[in-house]
Structure formats: structure tokens, C-alpha cells
Amino acid sequence: MAAAEAAEVVAVVDGDTIDVKTSAGESRVRIIGIDTPEIGRDGAAGDCYAIEARNFLDELLYGRKVELQSDSTQADVDAYGRLLRHVDVDGQSAAVLAIAAGTGYEYTYDKSYEGQSDHLAAEAAARDERVGLWGACPSVDR
Q: I need a labelling partner for 93 at 20 to 30 A (CA). Which of 41, 65, 116, 120 fits?
């Protein structure tokens, strides 16, 4: 992986997107390797477990110092202009922690990424144990 960039989490947008402050300023970051249920916007209903996913990430990351790492297998930014980064807190992958807690699922966009096997293992364990959305959301069929 590339060298880590220190950042502080200044907002949690949803279960897989955060706003950070680095020495270069503020940026929106889409966390690599996880997808979470969508929060309803503009009065629309959200997906099952969307609020829980956001709240988990908020408790895990808000106000904390994290390390951001780009991944040579992935683009630098996504179609929405968000930085694509691995996010580590206290030396642990925020994505793997969230997936293990059942707040989201492993997500591969286009190409495999560094650490993908850890994400897949966390999802398999959460699914087998019916943790989080795997036990709460009847519509989850992944």
C-alpha cells in the first residue's frame, strides 16, 4: 500500500463515506471495500440498516485520527469526486470492523483491492452469525 496520510474525521456521511481534514484541507472519502445500505435523502425511505451503519461508523471514527491509504489497484477518486481510500483507526481497517459488525458488505468495484480477503472473511463470519443487517433485514440476499 501507499504511504499513509494522517487525517481527522470531521463528519460521517453514511456507513461508507466520511469527511476528513488533512494537512491539505478537507476532503470526502469513500472507503474502499465496503458498501452499506443507502440512507434515504429528500424524504425518501432509507434501506434497512442504513442508519445503524452510519451510527456504527460515527461511533468508530467521528473526531478520531485515522490513516488514509490509497490503493494502486483502484482509482484515486470515484465518479462523485470522493477520494477512494482504505481507512485505518488504531491500526485496524474501519471497513473490516464495520463489515464484521454486520453494517455492510464487501464491495469490489471493477478490480480486486488490497486486503480484499479480510473483507470477504469478515462478511462470511457476520453472515454466518446473522450479525447486524444479516439478522435484521429480511431483504438482504447477498
A: 41
